[in-house]
Amino acid sequence: MVALFGGFHLADNQAAETGGIIELALNLFRDMAEANDSAAFGPALLGGIFERFADLGELVRHWLSALGELTLFSLRTVGWLFRRRPGRGTLIPNFYEIGVLSLPVVALTGTFIGMVLAVQSYAQFRVLGLETRLGAIINMSLVRELGPVLAATMLAGRVGSKIAAELGTMRVTEQIDALETMGASPLHHLVVPRFLGCLILIPSLTVMADFMGIAGGFFYSVVILGIDRGHYLANAEAFVGLYDVFTGLAKSVFFGGAIALISCFRGFHCDPGAEGVGRAATQAFVYSFVTILIIDLFLGILLDAIYAAIWGSAPVLL
Questions:
Q1: In a domain, 204, yes or no
Q2: Are residues 152 and 287 located together in one domain of the fold?
Q3: What is the 3-state secondary structure (H, E, C) of 91-159?
Q4: Mean pLDDT of 87-101
Q5: What is the pTM of this model?
Q6: Which structural domain range is residue 50 located in?
Q7: Distances 311 to 300, 308, 314 between C-alpha atoms, Å
Q8: CA 150 to CA 220: how far, in whole Å?
Q9: pLDDT tens-digit readout, 185-239
């Protein structure tokens, strides 16, 4: 997780850019080769090693510093949630932008993901004579994993990049500084509404992705592939429970919070100029996507352990 945020404040230090470790390793190997060619392998090699380790230490220091700044930024944002309620004039436009305008792309991609799952799974299940179990595997995959991750990825690409670009432009044009000069809190007026929008509305987007994916998988399996409708629905109902739905929705809340905080942080700490704004938007999506996958892994392990502790082993699909 520390390495994920390494590029936040490292634009002024070339050794600390993304790929800095690879550059350090290549430089170390180059020093070793030059020392070997110059017949001064011992002292030259040790000097090169110490220099590269010093660069690596500087890189790690920047990573830790950036992670600490992100943590403080997140804590201050959460603190403003309890200090003062955001006004409707800032909440409603952000809710509309984050939730309503994201529905079409989430619904479209969810539908095709469901159909793709049916296409890719049918041949293997047919060999085993388990075509009717497609309903269980498609719905389980969508509700627990693909639905939340898909909705979060679309949110990071469509909304996260936009947030970073908007706030980055405001930083470059000194609008954020103007808010501070007038005594207003930029976190309260700019970050908190976007954070609440992502946190509250991403479960709705996840439900939409789940529903459209399930509908797409059902349509392709029953109408196109000719699988028995009754057995398909019976298996889907038998193997997908409320805890599976809760698992997906719980993950989505963490995904939405991470997307909002990372995107706002990148916008607030944008480098000057148009290039800095573009870099902030790109980094907001990349860091958000990687964070989604990391959170998905650890929450998946935790939620599976909770299920096993309460209800025992899950039903066997095959």
A1: yes
A2: yes
A3: HHHHHHHHCHHHHHHHHHHHHHHHHHHHHHHHHHHHHCCCHHHHHHHHHHHHHHHHHHHHHHHHHHHHH
A4: 90
A5: 0.80
A6: 1-83
A7: 16, 6, 8
A8: 20
A9: 888 889 999 999 999 999 999 999 999 999 999 999 999 988 888 888 888 888 8
Q: Which residue has the tokens 């390494």?
A: 6
Distances from the Cα of 150 to the Cαs of 108, 142, 255, in angstroms? 11, 9, 11
64 and 102, same domain (yes or no):
no
Which of 83, 115, 150 lies at the terminal end of a domain, its last residue?
83
Pair 93, 8 in one domain: no
Report the pLDDT value the prediction gives residue 241, as an integer from 0 to 100.
84
When the pLDDT of each residue in the chain is averaged and rounded to a whole number, the result is: 83
- Kindly indicate the confidence band of residue 287, based on its pLDDT and cuts at 50, 70 and 90: very high
Q: Do the domain assignments include residue 116?
A: yes
* 14-32 burial: b if 16+ Cβ within 10 Å, else e: ebbeeebbebbeeebeebe
8 A C-beta contact, residue 258 and residue 77: no
Which amino acid, 165?
A
Domain boundary among 83, 100, 123: 83
Eight-class DSSP state of 178 = H
Same domain, 31 and 131: no
Q: Which residue from 251, 285, 21 is spatially nearest to 164, judged by alpha carbons?
A: 285
Nearest Cα to Cα of residue 317 among 144, 135, 120 = 135
